[in-house]
Amino acid sequence: MKHLLPTLAAISVSLLSFAQPKIPADSVVVTKHETTITGQRISYTAYKGTQPVWDEDGKAVAAVDYTYYERDGISDRASRPLVISFNGGPGSASVWMQIAYTGPALLEIDDEGYPVQPYGIKKNPYSILDVADIVFVNPVNTGYSRILDKETNKSTFFGVNADIKYLAEWLNTFVTRQDRWPSPKYLIGESYGTTRVSGLALELQSNQWMYLNGVILVSPTTLGIERGGPVEVALRLPYFAATAWYHNRLPADLQQKDLTDMLPEVEQYAVNEFLPALVKGGTLTPAEKQAIATRVSRYSGLPEKVILQNNLDISTSLFWKELLRDSGYTVGRLDSRYLGIDRRDAGERPDFNAELTAWLHAFTPAINHYMANELNFRTDVKYNMFGPVHPWDRSNDRTGENLRAAMAQNPYLQVLVQSGYYDGACDYFNAKYNMWQMDPSGRLQDRMSFVGYRSGHMMYLRKEDLEKGNEDIRNFIKASLPGKGVPAKY
After folding, report:
1. CATH number at residue 175
2. Which helix (H) or strand (E) holds 215?
3. Which of 51, 113, 204, 209 has the fewest CB atoms within 10 Å, i.e. the most exposed one?
4. How far apart are alpha carbons 24 and 20 in whole angstroms?
5. Same domain? 290 vs 348
6. Which segment of the chain is annotated as a signal peptide (predicted)?
7. What is the DSSP letter of 157?
């Protein structure tokens, strides 16, 4: 029997390889739908499919899956805006914004974003499909997108600049196939997707000769803009204050103020007093250090003792663990309204991200059901909510500067930033800092706008912010469309 084992093993491996489901490089399924958006009855066509990524020899080396929603009955498609949507990670599918924010389908959750059963999909009455067509793109290894040629080097896809380069080529093909070159174009990205679209703004312009009207940054990353040491520490404080306010951990005089009335005081302190104190480091006198700890405690809801024990430098992970430690809870990373329970109250960081487990709980059944039953896209390939994209080359990230350069070279291009006050991963004050630093001349400030929301990283999960966020995007698109005959010039 021993001499059969290698043969059986080889057969087993061969069958396993043969049974591995594959996605086609080039395919599309077309379905027709109707919905009501802002009280208006709308019919639309959904194109669910894959489009290849080709190498220099024209060989399809990867399949990128997408969902494209196009409103029916539009006679002037040249004036109809096209929104190109990416999520982040890197390694995250476009599922989040597709079925919870701007798309015409909406997953079943409660009004604050928590999972409910039975899982499912309903119509999104706040979608921006009334004013723009939308394509949701899944980069390689996310959603159904896959590498097709195993010989292709993964560095072709997995890195800040590699990601931008191949997606720009892919978008050129998509826009050509869909005959959307004349249309006003917008990029929207969430989280790492903001890194992606900031880089794409210049890459599309410089190497695909495709010019944009707008870029929407939802919960933006650092965009390659340097911050470290005292700056990084000081910028966290307004987020701490917002979260502490939400959990009723601030002193009475601050707690009785509305959130947006309270935060400017903390922002001013962070920049004008906390940052200079941190710069002094060990040269602070004990009295000065105590005074700073008292103020940081006032704004963060944390004990002075903990702040002093950490030399005034409170990490976000410690904050998530410490704020409600005496109540036996941790707070979420991406949305600090969410609570978690750890194995033990001691420690310096939570055991898990309370918000992410809740989101995956709701989104995963919904997207799988929606793809198969509403869009008729049936495959044995797994939908990767998060796909393997590591190692990811993060070197030479100049995406904030890329976006500035694209704006400087294109007078039409405007930027909208959307941030949740309770987002501890890509916090709102760091988003403001991006805007200040990527435009040192101050000459682009009138083409940048910021909106804050009373929720977290995916602010649209809260029903009130779903409606407001979409309306803000809708207004941004309308405002950034130039008047007929208005030239792009300074």
Report:
1. 3.40.50.1820
2. strand 214-218
3. 209
4. 13
5. yes
6. 1-19
7. T
Q: Which amino acid is at 463?
A: K
Identify whether 107 is part of a domain: yes
Q: How far apart are CA 134 and CA 187, in angstroms?
A: 10
**Residue 106 DSSP SS3:** strand
439 domain residue, yes or no: yes
Residue 2 has what pLDDT?
39
Work out how many domains the chain is built from and give that number.
2
Q: What is the pLDDT confidence band of residue 19, given thresholds at 50, 70 and 90?
A: low
> Would you say residue 485 lies in a domain?
no
Residues 207 and 260 in one domain: no
Contacts of 43 (CB under 8 A, 6+ apart): 32, 33, 34, 71, 72, 73
Give the DSSP letter string of 24-93.
-SSEEEEEEEEEEETTEEEEEEEEEEEEEEE-TTS-EEEEEEEEEEEETT-S-GGGS-EEEEE--TTTB-
Domain boundary, last residue among 299, 330, 355: 355
Q: Cα separation of 433 and 435, whole Å?
A: 5
Contact 239, 424 (CB under 8 A): yes
Give 3-state DSSP helix, strand, coil % of the chain, rounded to 5.
40, 20, 40
- Tell the residue number behind the tokens 């599918």, with chain if given: 93
According to DSSP, residue 483 is labeled P
> Strand pairing partners for 340?
330
Q: Which has the closest alpha carbon to 212: 455, 9, 474, 407?
A: 407
> 335: domain range?
229-355
How many whole angstroms separate alpha carbon 204 and alpha carbon 210?
5
49 and 141 part of one domain: yes
Same domain, 176 and 270: no
Q: Do 105 and 218 share a domain, yes or no?
A: yes
Per-residue pLDDT band for 20 (boundaries 50, 70, 90) equals confident
394 in the same domain as 351: no
Same domain, 237 and 220: no
79 shares its domain with 195: yes
